[in-house]
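FAQ: What does a ligand-bound record look like?

Like this one, built around iron/sulfur cluster:
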Amino acid sequence: MTQRESNPFSASEDNKRYLTYSYYLKKRFGCKVFKVPLNIDLGCPNRDGTKGTGGCIFCSAKYSGDFAGDPCRDIERQFNDIRARMHKKWPEGKYIPYFQAGSNTYADAEFLRPMFERAAGFENAVGLSIATRPDCIDEAKADMLFELSRRTYLTVELGLQSIHDRTASICNRCHTYEDFLYGAGLLKQRGINICVHIINGLPGESREMMTETAETVGQLGIHGIKIHLLHVLRGTALAEMYERGEAPAMTMEDYVQVVCDQIERIPEDVIIERVTGDGARSELIAPLWSLKKFCVMNEIDKELYRRGSFQGAALRWR
Ligand code: SF4
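The answer part, i.e. the structure of the complex:
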């Protein structure tokens, strides 16, 4: 029996055993849909002293938005440059402007509203994604986002990284899991799509802790999840910890095992937007195997196949 014939996960056109974002978007919009990263440089309360200083130990100089646009340029120009390039290859493609770098709700709702509305109206935009910290959501911003969500396919991406407060403290996140639940709750009460970012390989975390994070988050009624690998980037506090031997990088073998454990515990209807991360090649210190992103994704596919497993399998078998 071939791998394709034996795949028990039906929501796939490319033999994946989990619900990919590209599959979901294609089914929803009937064509290829691209996310276009934008940069509005709102900063971050974990850098400017409002919540903390120095930022998260892993955060790059570009506020974890290494592939986002140039904040000095108008967002429509940032959007159109990327759209023009994509259009040559996929003329029928549609787009989702993605406010990526920094904390994109770190301003008043009335300041944010026109910017988000403008982006939602860009040519061939079918939705909007906004990345932020959970403690940068309040009632007024949730109301504004709700209005937006009635007019476009909106997803708010919340950085959590781990449900374990001790890990959050080591990482200098300067918010707790309780804070996350509050911010996520404001969005959820209004029916706004939430995509949660988690990171595997954070200092002091075991395989069980990482799996628990994915499983717990998966039970919150979220729209999507992004599973990242911890990257050690030059110039970060994490790089110093790594040099001192306090934050060893994961091996690919361990990473693949953890991600498969997590996929098995995430409900089948939650979009798994990422199973590994992109680190800026020039800034990456470790783990260097992560540069072979497709190789990592293939290993995850192979391991799920070897286990005879798929997204949500562990929940089905209980
Ligand atoms: S919350 Fe995000 S932008 Fe702010 S320091 Fe942490 S990773 Fe960087």
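Follow-up question: can I read anything off the structure? Yes, for example: The first strand starts at residue 33 and ends at 38.
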